[in-house]
Amino acid sequence: MEITNVNEYEAIAKEKLPKMVFDYYASGAEDQWTLQENRNAFSRILFRPRILIDVSKIDMTTTVLGFKLSMPIMVAPTAMQKMAHPEGEYATARAASAAGTIMTLSSWATSSVEEVASTGPGIRFFQLYVYKDRNVVAQLVRRAERAGFKAIALTVDTPRLGRRESDIKNRFTLPPNLTLKNFEVLDLGKMDEANDSGLASYVAGQIDRTLSWKDVQWLQTITKLPILVKGVLTAEDGEKTLKSTTQNSHSSSSLASWVIALLVITLHFVTNSPKSVCYFFLSAARMAVQAGAAGIIVSNHGARQLDYVPATIIALEEVVKAAQGKIPVFLDGGVRRGTDVFKAIALGASGIFIGRPVVFSLAAEGEAGVRKVLQMMREEFELTMALSGCTSLKEITRNHIITDWDAPQARLLPKL
Ligand code: FNR
User: Fold this and answer.
1) 85 an active-site residue?
2) Where is the FMN hydroxy acid dehydrogenase domain (predicted)?
């Protein structure tokens, strides 16, 4: 049967995969209220399309952290992709690269940063879990940098693993033929069987529960890569993320900028070269960008951590306001349609990430499946833009949608 939308891959994956693996990919935490809400909330946002606009050319391109993408649809980090298909993360990396978009590799991938880099060119981010042993973290970040990864997505919503009941029932553990490849050389690549979820026990043993805002700054001291804070759901934390940026840019980086400025201006007078002035501005700009958290990912971890948090599409707007346009805000969670992508952008997101559709399509058809998912999302998004009267991302505005928090009942009533 022909696949006509991204959702259809879930049923195929369910048929193909062992129950333990499918349940691990599909499930959310506890009552799975947030899991459903991540999808349902999109259906409570309606369009206010504009007509009689020339939509013969639609430009979906965008820039994320300075990298040009063919569309604002990116791949979220999902762990252990070789459970879905033998090619696992390799297939995902190739598919994302072919689609002209970003793949985020999970810390808990079944392929290492070096292996994924060897699949060929592509813009890739590395998702980081902070281990208790900071040497492990520092080594891994260095390896990701060396392997050409362009940013770190620091996951901040997992001091402990959410209670995923099917993983407990299934005694979930990584199949014995696979390892968490990034940690193999550090002897942390295996997951022991446990009386409940093997992953939950692994997290309890290895992941640092003390992680706090000061560690975001610590991370900035060990890497030059831009850092995206993944797992923000409130304006309060959006503001803190922003402060982690500005505080830092007023301290070490701006001092460094001034030192460089003095050096370069001296050079300018000694050599009388206008080029050196340009270098000054260039290096200062680069440092400002590198100064702190470079962006926020509004995420509830695909509803796998704290149940009864709002859908990410509901939380998005308050975080966007808190970020004040100073750093980009991205979203993941329940995005399955081009219409969902449009709604997120209308609410201020600079782009979205998809998680489960990647592992389900990988299970069904390997690399071809992931390519198809990205292609279907692209085509649906393009059509949504055309039918809403938007020819580029910047033309998508808040006024192109109406939500049920705009005014009580406003969504279904005429706007008079
Ligand atoms: C995830 N997610 C995740 N996040 C992360 O930071 N590191 C990880 O290793 C993983 N692993 C992972 C595995 C699986 C099977 C799922 C479904 C999710 C969360 C992921 O990055 C993203 O936030 C959600 O998947 C987005 O929601 P959707 O698109 O799956 O609804």
Assistant:
1) no
2) 1-406
Work out whether strand 351-354 and strand 329-332 pair parallel, antiparallel, or are unpaired: parallel
Dump pLDDT digits (tens) for 31-62.
999 999 999 999 999 999 999 999 999 999 99
User: pLDDT tens across 358-373, in order?
Assistant: 999 999 999 999 999 9
Ligand 1 nearest-atom number relative to CA 24: 15
Whether the per-residue pLDDT at 252 is higher than 60: the answer is no
Structure-derived torsion over alpha carbons of residues 155, 67, 245, 133, reported in degrees to the nearest 10: 40
Give the pLDDT score at 221.
94
**Two tokens, residue 307:** 């149940």
Residue 353 CA: distances (Å) to CA of 104, 330, 333: 9, 8, 8
Contact criterion met (CB below 8 Å) for 153 and 127: yes
Q: Where are the alpha helices (DSSP H) in 118-172?
A: 134-146, 165-169
Which tokens sit at 362?
């990988």
As given in the structure block, the two tokens for residue 41 are: 């909330």
Task: Indicate whether residue 302 lines ligand 1 (CB < 6 A).
Answer: yes
Ligand 1 pocket test, pick from 17, 22, 78, 352 with the greatest ligand atom count within 8 Å of Cβ, gives 78
**Ligand 1 and 334: CB distance under 6 A:** yes
Question: Residue 265 — pLDDT band, cuts 50, 70, 90?
Answer: low
Residue 148 pLDDT: 98
Catalytic residue among 85, 250, 268, 301: 301
Rounded to two decimals, the pTM is 0.90
Nearby residues of 199 by Cβ (< 8 Å), 6 or more positions away: 24, 161, 167, 172, 173, 174, 191
| Those residues with Cβ within 8 angstroms of residue 393's Cβ, 6 or more apart along the chain or in another chain | 59, 60, 61, 62, 72, 345
Measured by CA distance, the residue closest to atom 5 of ligand 1 is: 77
